[in-house]
């Protein structure tokens, strides 16, 4: 990305059905780029556009709140936002800590647009959405071994809540770290 492109305005808006392909492309590309060396290559190779596209079409149709960052008329990043999720396997200490919180369910930026302010801009807009809904705290999960992402979130005011959780993707054991901050 050129310096001129870096300076061009980033507009954030709510995603529409027409954004599903762009969101899916960024989702696959960012996973393969950001998680190389952190997640098994086979798992990354299985992340394919067609399955992501179907998922995002359904999610948007069901009303998922997704913000997209647009620069030069192209979607360059997205963030899915909402109330903090508590699936059945959520540990009681995580459940009690995060009651009433907002959550960044996912935030991905096209590899070609990373480190250009897109992620920060998406977080600022997410904060506006959360503040309008009277949330006071926001949390997110990051792979514990994804130090670049953790540094980025820490630079945006998030801190480690010391509530890591273990899980698996295709049999690979992984750890997620809960990061949070006040709004």
Descriptors for this entry?
eight-stranded mixed sheet, alpha+beta
Number of helices: 7
Q: How many beta-strand segments?
A: 8
End-to-end Cα distance, whole Å, is: 31 Å
| Uncertain residue ranges | none
Mean pLDDT: 94
Strand content: 25-35%
What profile does the largest beta sheet have?
Answer: 8 strands, mixed
User: Rg from C-alpha positions?
Assistant: 16 Å
Which class do the helix and strand fractions yield? alpha+beta
Order of helices and strands: HEHHHEEHEHEHEEE
**Helicity range:** 25-40%
Description:
The protein is of the alpha+beta class and 183 residues long. Helix content is 38%, strand content 29%. It contains seven helices and eight strands; from the N terminus they run αβαααββαβαβαβββ. Strands 1, 2, 3, 4, 5, 6, 7 and 8 form an eight-stranded mixed β-sheet that branches. The radius of gyration is 16 Å and the shape is globular. The mean pLDDT is 94.
In short:
By secondary structure, the chain is α+β, with helices and mostly antiparallel strands.
Please render the helix and strand layout as text.
Blueprint: H1 3-7, E1 11-14, H2 20-34, H3 41-46, H4 49-61, E2 66-71, E3 74-83, H5 92-97, E4 102-109, H6 118-132, E5 137-143, H7 147-155, E6 159-160, E7 165-169, E8 172-182
Parallel strand pairs: 4-5
Antiparallel strand pairs: 1-2, 2-3, 3-4, 5-8, 6-8, 7-8
Helix pairs in contact: 2-4
